[in-house]
From TrEMBL:
Enzyme class: transferase
Record carries keyword Flavoprotein: no
PANTHER family cross-referenced by the UniProt entry: SENSOR HISTIDINE KINASE GLRK, TWO-COMPONENT HISTIDINE KINASE
Pfam families recorded: HATPase_c, HisKA
Start and end residues of each Histidine kinase domain: 253-469
Reaction(s) the record says it catalyses: ATP + protein L-histidine = ADP + protein N-phospho-L-histidine
Name of the protein this chain belongs to: histidine kinase
InterPro entries the UniProt entry points to: BphY/WalK/GraS-like, HATPase_C_sf, HATPase_dom, His_kinase_dom, HisK_dim/P_dom, HisK_dim/P_sf, Sig_transdc_His_kin-like_C
Transmembrane segments: 12-30
Origin superkingdom: Bacteria
A molecular function (GO) term: kinase activity
C-alpha cells in the first residue's frame, strides 16, 4: 500500500513524526553504548597488562635477589647443590626476561641483561675464586633500569588511555550535538506539517467571521481530517454567504414593503383622527386611536431593527477627533420633546474637551441610553449624563431614578431581544434591542458596557471605552 503524507490521517502523521524523531535518538543511544563499550574494553585490557607487567617486574627483582644470595652462598660454601640453585634462578630470570622483552619490545636493556646473565652462568660453570661483585652489580642496575622503563611505559599507556577517553568523549559530544540538531529539525518539520494546515484553518475561520470576508481560494493540504475540515469550512462559508445575501435582500424588501403601507396607514389614521373625512363616533375614534398607536409602535420597531442590521454590517469604526459637548448636545436636542413630555431634565457633567472615537457609534450609544432613561426613568426626575476619564479608560454614565434592575438580569439585558420586567412609561413598547446595540457599539470601539450601582441614582449604565490619547495641538 502506497503511503502518502498528503493523504495520511492525523494519527498516522503524528506516529510518523514520533518515529522520525526517535531514529536519531536510537542512533545516539547505539553510538553511546558502542563508545562506552570501547572505552571499557580498552580500560580493562590496559589494566590487565599493567598488572601483568608490574607482577613480572616484581618477580624479576625477587629473582635477582635470589641469584645474588645463591651466588654469595656458593662463593662461601662451594657445593654442587647451591650451584644448581643459582643456575636455576638464572634460568628463571632468563625466562622472565624473555617474556617481558617479548611483551614489551620497547625495552632496550634486554640484550645487555641477557649477556650479563649468560656471563654469570659461565662464571658459575668455572671454578671462580672470588664472587663476581661487578657482574652482580651490573645485573642489579640493569634490573632497576628495566623496572624503571616498565613504569615509564605504564605511565605512557595511562596517558594514551586518557587521551583515548578524551577523544571518545569529544567524538560522542559532536555526535550528540549533530543527532540532537537532526532530531530538532525533524520535530520542526513534523510540527510544521501539522501546524501549517491548522494555521490555514484559523485564517479560514477568521475569514468566515468577517462581515465581508474573502475566503481563501487555496485548497488546504495536510492530514486527511484537517483537509476534510477545510472543505467543510469552505462549504460553510459558501452557505453563510448565501444566507447573508438572503438576509440583506429580506431586510431591504421588508423595509421597503413595510414603510410604504405603514406610511399609508399612519396618514389614513391621521385623517380619521382629525375627522377630515367625516365625523366619528366615540367608539370609532377609540379604535382609530388604537390603530394609530399600533402603527407608531410598528414604525419604531422597524426602525430599530434596521438600525441594528446596519450596526451588524459595520466592520471597523471610523476614528476621528470629536467634540463631546457637541455630540452630547445634539443628542439631547433630538430627545428634547420626549424628555419634556415626562418633565425630565438632563444634568450633564462632561470633563473631556476632545474625544477620539467613531461619531456614529458613539451617537448610537447615546441615543439608546437616553431613550432608555427617558422611557424607564421616573417622571419629573433628572437624567444624569457623565463623561470623564479614569486611568486609561473613558467612562460614559447615563443614570436615572426608577425601579432598580435586579443583579441576575443585568448581563441578560445586553443580549438581543431581551427586556426587563419594568414597564416603559412612554407609549412605545420596546423591542429589546436598545442595550444590545449599546453593547455591540461599545465592543466595536474596543470597550464594554455594564450596569453598575451608584449613590446618586437608582439605575446607571456605564460604558467603558479605551483612552486613545489626547488631540495634538
Amino acid at each position: 500500500m502506497r503511503f502518502s503524507i498528503q493523504t495520511a490521517s492525523l494519527r498516522q502523521l503524528v506516529l510518523l513524526s514520533f518515529f522520525l524523531a526517535l531514529i536519531p535518538v536510537g542512533v545516539l543511544l547505539w553510538q553511546s553504548n558502542k563508545s562506552l563499550s570501547g572505552v571499557s574494553s580498552f580500560a580493562i585490557t590496559s589494566a590487565e597488562r599493567s598488572v601483568s607487567y608490574v607482577r613480572q617486574s616484581e618477580s624479576m627483582q625477587s629473582v635477582v635477589i635470589d641469584i645474588e644470595r645463591a651466588v654469595r652462598q656458593y662463593g662461601v660454601v662451594r657445593t654442587e647443590a647451591i650451584r644448581r640453585v643459582a643456575l636455576t634462578h638464572i634460568e628463571n630470570q632468563q625466562q622472565l626476561l624473555q617474556q617481558v622483552c617479548q611483551d614489551l619490545p620497547q625495552l632496550n636493556l634486554c640484550a645487555e641483561q641477557e649477556a650479563a646473565l649468560e656471563a654469570l652462568r659461565q662464571r658459575l660453570s668455572e671454578e671462580f675464586i672470588n664472587t663476581p661483585e661487578s657482574l652482580m652489580q651490573q645485573i642489579r642496575q640493569q634490573q632497576q633500569r628495566i623496572t624503571q622503563q616498565i613504569w615509564d611505559l605504564l605511565e605512557r599507556q595511562l596517558s594514551e588511555q586518557q587521551q583515548f577517553v578524551t577523544h571518545t568523549q569529544q567524538q560522542l559530544a559532536w555526535q550528540t550535538f549533530a543527532l540532537v540538531l537532526l532530531t530538532l529539525l525533524l520535530v520542526l518539520w513534523s510540527s510544521n506539517r501539522i501546524t501549517a494546515p491548522v494555521k490555514k484553518l484559523d485564517r479560514m475561520i477568521r475569514a468566515i467571521g468577517q462581515p465581508k470576508h474573502q475566503f481563501p481560494d487555496e485548497k488546504l493540504r495536510g492530514p486527511r481530517e484537517l483537509t476534510e475540515l477545510g472543505e467543510q469550512l469552505r462549504w460553510l462559508s459558501s452557505r453563510l454567504q448565501q444566507l447573508e445575501a438572503l438576509r440583506l435582500i429580506l431586510l431591504r424588501h421588508a423595509s421597503h414593503e413595510l414603510k410604504t403601507p405603514l406610511s399609508s396607514i399612519r396618514e389614513g389614521c391621521a385623517l380619521l383622527t382629525e375627522q377630515l373625512v367625516g365625523p366619528l363616533t366615540p367608539q370609532q375614534l377609540e379604535v382609530v386611536t388604537l390603530l394609530n398607536g399600533s402603527a407608531d409602535r410598528l414604525s419604531v420597531l422597524t426602525e430599530q431593527l434596521l438600525d441594528y442590521n446596519r450596526l451588524l454590517q459595520q466592520a471597523q469604526p471610523e476614528w476621528a477627533w470629536q467634540t463631546p459637548q457637541q455630540l452630547l448636545q445634539a443628542c439631547f436636542n433630538d430627545h428634547a420633546l420626549s424628555l419634556q413630555q415626562r418633565q425630565q431634565q438632563v444634568k450633564l457633567d462632561c470633563q473631556l474637551n476632545t474625544l477620539y472615537t467613531d461619531a456614529t457609534l458613539f451617537r448610537r450609544i447615546l441615543d439608546n441610553l437616553i431613550n432608555n432613561a427617558q422611557a424607564y426613568g421616573a417622571e419629573s426626575s433628572p437624567v444624569w449624563v457623565k463623561l470623564y476619564r479614569q486611568d486609561d479608560m473613558i467612562l460614559l454614565e447615563v443614570a436615572n431614578n426608577g425601579a432598580p434592575i435586579p443583579v441576575a438580569l443585568r448581563e441578560k439585558l445586553f443580549e438581543p431581544f431581551q427586556r426587563g420586567t419594568t414597564p416603559r412609561f412612554d407609549s412605545v413598547q420596546g423591542s429589546g434591542l436598545g442595550l444590545s446595540i449599546v453593547a455591540d457599539c461599545a465592543r466595536l470601539l474596543g470597550g464594554h458596557a455594564d450596569i453598575v450601582d451608584v449613590v446618586y441614582a437608582d439605575v446607571c449604565i456605564r460604558v467603558h471605552l479605551p483612552f486613545l490619547g489626547e488631540k495634538p495641538l
